[in-house]
Design a protein that fits this description.
Blueprint: E1 13-14, H1 26-31, E2 34-35, E3 41-42, H2 44-47, H3 51-66, E4 69-74, E5 80-82, H4 87-93, H5 102-116, E6 118-125, E7 131-137, E8 142-146, E9 153-157, E10 164-165, E11 169-173, H6 185-188, H7 190-208, E12 215-219, H8 225-239, E13 253-257, H9 267-282, H10 297-327, H11 330-334, E14 337-341, H12 344-347, H13 351-363, H14 369-375
Parallel strand pairs: 1-8
Antiparallel strand pairs: 2-3, 4-5, 4-14, 6-7, 6-11, 8-9, 9-10, 12-13
Helix pairs in contact: 3-5, 3-9, 7-9
């Protein structure tokens, strides 16, 4: 009934409710990409052969997947607790369906968004309307359309079910201009990725068989075709398979080296620039792609915090808000249920800095001892739930001792 890994098809949104728009060219329709000016066909699948794209998508997917995702409940008084007794907690925290772990599910969905801008999962509900499982769908097989009469959204799966209402589809979107589908980042960056593919191909051809002949023999006079063929074959017979043999040329012959100097081509500089461009596209710090040219011991930690703040936090917000809207009923949301990623693991600094932050937090009443122990994955102890507060502080505007 559910196909996790179907490929092919096209992803197009139709805001008018009519027939979904058709892409120009079978390559675009089949793979969600197209031919770049460099001559390379760029699709989400071909882009993954560029190591900078592969690494960027994997970093984002694994970072999101490694964060614990829990269902919380805000009780009266503002206290937030884990809603472990709710079925949705186990669904997103442990296993969304019988075949996948929560890590597998989050990793796949984030990779879909990184490569195609959208991630889809069919929501399986029981007779009471409660969510029982989430089954991922291949983004290239899904078409989104909006009913022009009431604005409702429906999903069609190529080779599968059509007319699926939005309440039965978990649709995670990347950056979008219409609120209906996320933009495909690989399609938008087609020229950047195409240039990277072309650069890798040129480098491989240069190392392999060369993009030009390695050498030329200059002969006095104007030899005909047969003479040129004889000279070429003679060279092959003598030197083929033995690159270290000494070349012997006849009278009136001169050898010219035609091999291209990769330094003169600024090949490595071009490759570095493409890595930087791809890192910019995914908002990945260059040092996470093994580009340490401008990295120092003092700025890497700051860049890691920027990665959390400017790259992961927007993705986390998309996840949390879409899960709240698609999986929780209106009554559950009004009762205080909400999904929350735990980003504490990504914010952990070295032990000294971490414990200094804990001490400050406890001294001003932000943490109690057991909360700190929980963050360090240690068991609580009796009496550790007491909060402390400074004795030398008072409410703003309160009269001081000795004042009327």
């Amino acid at each position: 009934m559910f196909n996790f890994f179907n490929r092919g098809g096209s992803l197009r949104a139709d805001a008018s409710g009519g027939t979904p728009s058709k892409p120009a060219g079978w390559i675009v329709g089949l793979f969600g990409g197209g031919k770049s000016i460099s001559g390379e066909y760029v699709t989400p699948d071909s882009a993954m052969h560029v190591m900078a794209v592969y690494a960027s998508v994997r970093i984002l997917a694994e970072s999101i997947a490694s964060l614990p995702l829990s269902l919380k409940m805000k009780e009266k008084g503002g206290k937030r607790v884990d809603a472990d007794d709710h079925p949705l907690h186990a669904l997103l925290h442990d296993a969304p369906n019988p075949q996948m772990t929560a890590f597998d599910f989050k990793e796949m969905k984030q990779a879909h968004m990184g490569l195609r801008g959208n991630a889809y999962s069919l929501i399986e509900r029981d007779g009471k309307g409660e969510v029982g499982a989430l089954y991922p769908q291949a983004p290239d097989k899904v078409t989104v359309r909006r009913n022009p009469d009431d604005g409702s959204i429906y999903y069609d799966i190529s080779g599968g079910e059509n007319g699926i209402p939005a309440r039965r589809m978990l649709h995670l979107r990347g950056f979008s201009l219409d609120g209906l589908i996320g933009l495909n980042p690989i399609e938008l960056a087609r020229e950047t990725v195409g240039l990277a593919i072309a650069g890798e191909r040129a480098g491989a051809e240069t190392v392999g068989r060369g993009i030009v002949p390695p050498a030329a023999i200059e002969v006095v006079g104007n030899p005909d075709k047969k003479q040129r063929d004889d000279i070429r074959q003679s060279w092959r017979d003598i030197h083929a398979g033995n690159r270290n043999d000494i070349a012997v040329l006849g009278a009136g012959m001169k050898l010219h080296d035609l091999r291209i100097n990769m330094k003169d081509m600024q090949f490595m500089e071009s490759r570095k620039f493409q890595v930087t461009e791809i890192a910019r596209m995914f908002r990945i710090p260059p040092h996470m792609l093994a580009d340490l040219e401008k990295a120092t011991f003092s700025n890497i930690e700051h860049q890691d915090l920027q990665f959390l703040k400017y790259t992961l936090i927007p993705w986390i917000a998309r996840w949390e808000q879409r899960l709240n809207l698609s999986l929780l009923s209106e009554d559950e949301r009004s009762e205080g249920y909400f999904f929350k990623f735990n980003v504490d693991a990504l914010m952990r600094a070295d032990m000294k800095s971490r414990f200094e932050a804990y001490r400050t937090g406890r001294e001003i009443g932000v943490y109690n001892a057991n909360e700190i122990r929980d963050l360090e994955d240690r068991d609580p102890y009796e009496g550790g739930d007491i909060y402390l507060e400074p004795l030398n502080m008072q409410r703003a505007g309160a009269p001081r001792e000795g004042q009327a």
